[in-house]
Write a structure and sequence with these properties.
This protein is an alpha+beta fold. It has a domain of 117 residues. The protein contains seven helices and six strands. Strands 4-3-5-6 form a four-stranded antiparallel sheet. A two-stranded antiparallel ribbon has the order 1-2. β5 and β6 form a beta hairpin. The longest helix has 14 residues. The two termini are 38 Å apart.
Length: 176
């Protein structure tokens, strides 16, 4: 999470905080490469009136079995996090990565207008990554973040060593 603060213009004004969701491209690629199951999911919606719920007309799923394709999808998903990512052409790119021919699909009457990368982890959790939700969908595994108190203290002490005045002692709590 990234926070941006605007300084108050007058002494008694409130500080204006804005929070922005940040993504982690490396973690997103890792999520795809280590997933138990990866699929490319393409969807065609039935046209409706504006504001109405859009029913799914057709859905197609392609299993991804090779590491090379997972790597390509990881790179693509990492680009989903960029603010200037071209959201218009991503369905055609997914179709191409799946090894499908857009023209042949169109000739057969399939006009996919949405899609994403479905990632299923070993614990059964499944997520569909799209350019619109990539920042929100992936999360960190809590076990990756949870460190022992001793490891946390060692890391903190190593970071502080160069920033403290010479001669400053730190009780490290690790020795008796």
């Amino acid at each position: 999470m990234y926070e941006e603060a605007t300084a108050p213009s007058k002494p008694n004004d409130w500080i204006n905080l804005k929070a922005y969701q940040l993504g982690d491209a490396q973690r997103l690629s890792e999520l795809i490469s280590k997933a138990d199951k990866v699929e490319i999911e393409l969807t065609e919606h039935h046209p409706t009136k504006p504001g109405a719920r859009v029913p799914v007309l057709r859905k197609m799923t392609q299993n991804v079995t090779t590491n090379a394709v997972k790597t390509r999808l990881g790179k693509m998903a990492s680009k989903f996090l960029e603010d200037n990512y071209d959201r218009q052409g991503y369905v055609a790119k997914l179709t191409k990565i799946a090894g499908l021919d857009v023209d042949q699909l169109a000739d057969a009457g399939a006009h996919f207008d949405a899609g994403g990368i479905r990632v299923t982890e070993k614990n059964g959790d499944s997520r569909l990554l799209t350019p619109d939700n990539a920042r929100d969908v992936f999360t960190y595994d809590r076990t990756d973040l949870q460190r022992s108190d001793e490891d946390w203290l060692k890391t903190a002490l190593n970071r502080l060593k160069g920033h403290l005045s010479e001669g400053t002692d730190i009780f490290d709590g690790l020795t008796d």
